[in-house]
Amino acid sequence: MTASTRDSSATLGRVAVFAALIIVLGTVVVPLPGGVPITGQTLGVMLAGLVLGPRVAPWSIALVLALAAVGLPVLAGGRGGLGVFVGPTVGYLIGWIAGVVVIGLLMRTGRFTWWRCAVAALVGGVFVVYAFGIPVQALVTGVPLDLTALSSLAFLPGDLIKVTAATLIVVTLRRAYPRAFADSRRGRELATA
Which UniProt keywords apply (predicted)? Predict the structure, then answer.
């Protein structure tokens, strides 16, 4: 097996592992009025961006969305099928892709630190996802944008808890197993930060 084939296989494995993690975290659901539940899946999205980086993480999200599109119950609350792509959550799903790219880019702009990790998870995993999700939710539900944004504040405490959890998990993983990260070639030097 060549090094290139081994790297490709490892990358595919990492994509699958994070897609599975996102799916499993979808079983953690707190329903809210308005059709958009609080879910553990966004924690998985944050972790994918933080660990896999801006090039690989979107493939994990794309895999989850492809599985949902063919009807598998992989989204929060066991949802799947093409109907989820015309419902109030579709903007958030699209935001996951942009969010992991932003998270990955922010993590790659400098030396690994816990605060960079927290900022990346907050900006990409919350602000970017909301930037896509809130306007589309308003459009689909017919609720004015300002009211939709105001109602989205109900998600903020849970999302801040997920940012904290993602930061703690990633900092611990980075110290224990730096090879797990997209930049594993530099992992040893970065793990000492």
Answer: Cell membrane, Membrane, Transmembrane, Transmembrane helix, Transport
